[in-house]
Amino acid sequence: MDVSISAGPAFAMGTVAVPPGGSVRVEAGAMAMTRGDITVETSTQGGFFKGIRRALGGESFFVNDYHSATGGQVGVAATLPGDMVKVTLGSTPLMVQSGSWSASDPSVDVDSKWGGGKSFFSGEGLILLRCSGAGDLLLASYGAIIATELTAGETLTLDTGHVVAFDETVQYSVRKAGSWKSTLLGGEGLVTDFTGPGRVWMQTRSSLDLIEWIKRVNPQQRSNS
After folding, report:
1. What is the helix (H) or strand (E) element at residue 138, kind and residue range?
2. Which domains can be identified in the chain, with CATH numbers?
3. pTM given for the model
4. pLDDT above 70 (res 111)
5. Per the record, a Pfam family (predicted)?
6. Per-residue pLDDT tens for 2-46?
7. Which of 72, 166, 168, 216, by CA, is between 20 and 30 Å from 134?
8. HEC profile of 7-38
9. How does strand 39-43 pair with strand 13-18?
């Protein structure tokens, strides 16, 4: 995927150059601009029932495939302000926080995967997308993106709202940030320990924290409480 990222790291937009006869797959609602010979086809990648699984996992029923017969461009932007990064997939699938997947080559399979009962992901409303196959994908973040390479046995601990993506080779487990006192009074809830080998991407801001801040300062909510 030939992509140039501009206006980062605060308000990044990815512009994908679609070659003649080529295409790019984009998350529903993420397209900001098209230029040149571009047509769009909406589908439930992998068929109707796979689309339903994604919908039940908190994702859209549909993805949009942008095609070009003679060449064109597609601009992709995330909902929240932040950065973007292109990641090339190899033999190891990538687990992506659902709000961070913006676009990918059509050869990349994107499917939802619940965090499961052992994980805070489902409890926090965060869904993991499993991206596999050969090709590139475009990740978006709220805030800047920081990539970390973990060696075998090395551990990195992240707050739930700062997770962007990690290699499937990375193991993760969930625990409380501290004692019940720090959980209830210190503003720290559950955290995840990521253990290598593999790569982990984090974002410097948390959309969950933004939502909680909006709730606190929303006059309408205060008046209804």
Report:
1. strand 135-140
2. 2-217 (3.60.160.10)
3. 0.81
4. yes
5. AIM24
6. 999 999 889 999 999 999 999 999 998 899 999 999 999 987 654
7. 72
8. CCCCECEEEEEECCCCEEEEECCCEEEEEECC
9. unpaired
